Amino acid sequence: MNASMSWGDAARALAVDFGARAAQHDRDGSFAHENFAALHEAGLLALAAPRRWGGQGASSAQLAEVIGAIAYGCPATALVLSMQYIQQRQSALPGSPWPEPLARSLVQQAVDGVSLVNALRVEPELGSPARGGLPATVARRDSGGWRLDGRKIYSTGSPILRWMVVWARTDDEPPRVGSFLVRADSPGVRIEETWDHLGLRASGSHDVVLEGVQVPEGHAIGLLPHDTRASSPDAVFHAEMILLLGALYDGIARAARDWLLGFLNERVPTALGAPLASLPRFQEAVGRIEGALLSNRFLLERLASDLDAGVPIPIVDAGLVKNLVMHQATTVVQDAVALTGNHGLSRRNPLERHLRDVLCGRVHTPQEDSVHLSAGRRALQAER
């Protein structure tokens, strides 16, 4: 990266190239390995890790700026990168169960080369882990540590991961639950290319199958009896995850808005003899889009500011921010499609891809019903 450039500037420069390739990767469902080589070259793969471990120690606001910029060009790349940042942040939290030498080693590998990590939690039978339940993936005691067997689905970034943080239970009675750090090229790890999704098609979110995978003793992270585990995630980690995902989907919405503005200024119907942008109906509709994007910017900037200032952020409030940002980003893209008709749905234009990508925001934890249930209960209990 040029010494005079900020991390956000570097991300925006990369996003131009990423955007030029995004449509083809989307069409093929192929993984953009070249994007991550460029991210490493720009020094952006260890941005969220603390300086004491060799990372750049970026603020929450800086991370959100980078993710939003990358998402503007290639949302699938931004999703994989956000998972990298989330793991770096989680491992460095006060009281983290991660052994520091292990976390430090992963950061150094991301500094030295293209090395990425993500948590593998979702399973075919379990559904969203946030809803509770025991993982079916089992870790059994072995002479060298542990032996892992199971299947994980929606494993984002699986084609490029060097490390997988696999959520599993032990075969103890009662079982303990925690994570196991698995080298992706370990014998017994197999990727089944099952990802054929509507949106974020280049994210490589395939199934990962683990069959007798050997894991060293020291790679077990945070094992606790299942019935003693806290029901709520760490509030800081939860808020930062929502910030990065919110920035990602806001980046998609901004890309859709910018394409719409170009279309409305360039489209000159014969009967009108002037650009569509000259019509009050389109001006009013674009004004509504601007309002939604402004609201998202204020929400995300406030969330980032509070995180960087150490202001406590209730989990319920962070969840409400997630719902609002995702809803408004989706509305922006849907309105853009409605304004452009068949042009917006044509695969030769990027708007239909933005629509498919932005719809994926609804899937991320916490889901809308859980957020509203928690917020409603809190408000009603406060009035008792």
TrEMBL record:
Statement: the UniProt record of this protein carries the keyword NAD: no
Domain Acyl-CoA oxidase/dehydrogenase middle: start-end pairs: 123-213
A Pfam family this chain is assigned to: Acyl-CoA_dh_2
Keywords in alphabetical order: Flavoprotein, Oxidoreductase
Xref: InterPro entries: Acyl-CoA_DH_C (IPR013107), Acyl-CoA_Oxase/DH_mid-dom (IPR006091), Acyl-CoA_Oxase/DH_mid-dom_sf (IPR046373), AcylCo_DH-like_C (IPR036250), AcylCoA_DH/ox_N (IPR013786), AcylCoA_DH/ox_N_sf (IPR037069), AcylCoA_DH/oxidase_NM_dom_sf (IPR009100), Mito_Isobutyryl-CoADH (IPR052547)
Molecular functions (GO terms): flavin adenine dinucleotide binding; oxidoreductase activity, acting on the CH-CH group of donors
Domain Acyl-CoA dehydrogenase C-terminal: 245-365
CDD domains: ACAD
Sequence ranges assigned to domain Acyl-CoA dehydrogenase/oxidase N-terminal in this UniProt record: 10-84
PANTHER family (alphabetical): ISOBUTYRYL-COA DEHYDROGENASE, ISOBUTYRYL-COA DEHYDROGENASE, MITOCHONDRIAL
The protein, known as: Acyl-CoA/acyl-ACP dehydrogenase
